[in-house]
Design goal:
Blueprint (H helix, E strand, L loop, with lengths): L1 E2 L11 E10 L2 H4 L6 H4 L9 E5 L2 E11 L5 H15 L2 H12 L12 H11 L11 H6 L11 E4 L6 E4 L12 H22 L5
């Protein structure tokens, strides 16, 4: 769904459109997530969309804010939205199924190599500390506003008391030029946004 933006101007210039992809869960799955807290642990399985709870409505959602100065529709935006539409819900629903059934990982080799990650680190290290290696927030991410593209999910971090944003790019997107660097830049913007939100709530970061 293409939504009218809530703000027409931003630091990055005029906003052309906001594209939101939302896939409602089947009723038998939605009944399992009766509260926002119930979605948090499942978002550790997220890939291109977040399991999002909004007043009893449960869906898997992603968002892309497109700026007028951007010319990335055929090379970046379209492939990302296409694969999100096709398999955005698959990772979370597959993770839920494997958790409940006790099935193991189906395996498969990754197309993403150490050199891909090194390229991302080289780019981001100029502006931030960057390392590489092995719920209200999700709802806020779906707003039609000037925010970094939302293709992933907020979940509980490894420390147990910290929020973490998880994103996963399937092998099918490996051929999209520059996608890893774009996702990394979006992550940097998202970290800055999250720091501001947490600070406004009185949480020290």
């Amino acid at each position: 769904m293409v939504s009218p933006e809530e703000q027409r101007e931003s630091e990055r210039g005029p906003i052309r459109a906001v594209v939101r992809v939302a896939a409602p869960l089947p009723p038998e799955f939605a009944a399992f997530f009766k509260t926002a807290d119930a979605t948090i642990s499942m978002n550790s399985f997220a890939a291109l969309g977040a399991l999002t709870w909004n007043g009893g409505r449960v869906y898997i959602g992603s968002r892309l804010t497109i700026y007028s100065v951007e010319d990335a529709w055929p090379t970046l935006h379209l492939p990302l939205l296409l694969f999100t539409t096709i398999c955005g819900a698959e990772a979370i629903l597959g993770g839920v199924r494997r958790s409940l059934s006790g099935e193991g990982d189906s395996g498969g080799a990754s197309s993403w190599t150490a050199s891909d990650l090194a390229q991302v680190r080289q780019y981001l290290s100029r502006v931030a500390v960057c390392t590489i290696g092995g719920q209200g927030l999700n709802n806020m991410e779906m707003a039609a506003r000037d925010l970094p593209p939302h293709f992933g999910a907020w979940c509980t971090g490894k420390l147990g008391n910290n929020p973490a944003y998880l994103s996963f790019l399937p092998n099918a997107l490996h051929s999209v030029s520059g996608i890893a660097a774009n996702v990394a830049v979006w992550a940097l913007g998202r970290a800055q946004m999250a720091n501001a939100v947490l600070a406004s709530l009185g949480v020290r970061v």
